[in-house]
Amino acid sequence: MRPDPTVLVTLCTGNAARSVMAAYMLDHWAGELGVALDVVSAGTHVVEGQPMGMRTRAALASIPELEAIAVSGHRSKQLREDQLDVADLIVAMEADHVRFVRRHHPAAAKRTATLRRLCLDLLPGESALLDRVDALGLADRPLDPAEDVADPAGGDVDVYVACAHELWLLTEQLARAL
Question: Model pTM?
Answer without folding.
Answer: 0.95
